[in-house]
Every structure is written in structure tokens, then in C-alpha cells.
Amino acid sequence: MPFDKDEVLPSQQAQFDALEPTRLKELDHAIAKWKGKPTALLQVMHVAQEAFTWLPEGALERISRGLDLPRAQVYGFATFYDHFYTDGPARNTLRVCQSISCHLRGAQELIAAATKQLGVTPGQITKDGRVRFECVSCLGQCDGGPAVSVNDEPQHAVTPEQLNQLISRLK
After folding, report:
1. How many CA atoms lie less than 13 Å away from 94 in the CB half-sphere?
2. Helix (H) or strand (E) holding 96
3. Are 44 and 23 within 8 A, CB to CB?
4. Percent of the chain as helix, strand, coil, to the nearest 5
5. pLDDT (tens digit, 9 = 90+) per residue, 86-106?
6. Which is deepest, 15, 48, 108, 170, by most CB within 10 Å?
């Protein structure tokens, strides 16, 4: 569902133009598919995040206009949920579980090792955009902690040395 350029302010059009056309088509397809359905915003946000690896301003504006929702509602939704990113792209996502099970099995050592190797604290992206580093409440891997996930692939019983190797392999 392409938008008529006459309907869009120049500043908004510049945001749309900055988005890659193929990925923009994926977003437009999702908007057309889900518009009017109760879970439309959630579904379209997931498609946008998968397409762009984050939610750029242009995508949020497109979602707002496409689903006929106030921009504040779309932005509020995007910033409320931890798994939606509005702070920029990263090629990889590293999550360290902080649940009580993982904490008791050494999660703090993993957080310290990742912080040292990446040069960023949890909640940040490395300067080269290679890794988004997060601490999460639970990865659902309580029987195999301490657990981490790399690009949504769970890793069990991870040691600081193993984590350093995992991070080194991220491109």
C-alpha cells in the first residue's frame, strides 16, 4: 500500500526515502494484511523490526499512517516493550539472562565478561554497530543456566570463556 507523496510532508517523505525499498514493501504488505485487526500494531511492529533490525522513525511514521493510529500510540508501543528497538541498528543481539536460576549459576560473571569484551554496558550498542548487549529477566532456559542468547539462539551453561568466544565470532 504505497502512500501518495502529496499526502506526506517533506520531512516525513525523507524518512520514508531513507528506508530500503525492499524492506519498505515488506512493511507495506504487513500493514495491508493486518490493518483493522485487533493485533495489527503488534504484528506489524514485529515485521518492521525483522525487516530493519530496529524501528527507525520512518517505519514508525509509516505504521502510524498505514494503520490510522496516532503516532504517539505507535511510538509508545515501540518504546514500552523491551524487544522493540528504537535506538539504532545492530547486526547482532546478545542477551544475558538474569533470572534467579542464572544469577545463582554465574550470570553476573557473564555480564562482566561481556561488558569488558564489548566495551559497552547492558542496554547499549557497540560503536561499530556489531552487537546490541542486553540483560533480560528470563530466557526460559532455567534448567541450563547461566543462559545467553545470540540472535535469539539460546546457549546453555555458558562460561565467561565460552561467552568471549561467542562474542569474537559475531561479525
Report:
1. 28
2. strand 92-97
3. no
4. 50, 10, 35
5. 988 889 999 999 999 999 999
6. 48
Cβ atoms 77, 38 nearer than 8 A:
no
Give pLDDT tens digits for 1-18.
Answer: 344 434 544 454 455 556
**Calpha distance 107→135 (Å, rounded):** 9
Whether the full predicted model's pTM is greater than 0.90, yes or no, is: no
Inter-axis angle of helices 40-52 and 57-67, nearest 10 = 150
Length of the chain as a residue count? 171
Which triple of cell numbers denotes residue 133? 548487549
Q: Are 146 and 105 in contact (CB under 8 A)?
A: yes
Q: Which three cell numbers stand for residue 31?
A: 500493514
The C-alpha angle 108, 126, 137, rounded to 5 degrees, equals 35
> Could you tell me if 31 and 67 are in contact, meaning their C-beta atoms sit under 8 angstroms apart?
yes
Q: Decide: 52 and 89 in contact? Cβ < 8 Å.
A: yes
Sign of the torsion formed by the C-alpha atoms of 100, 104, 108 and 110: negative
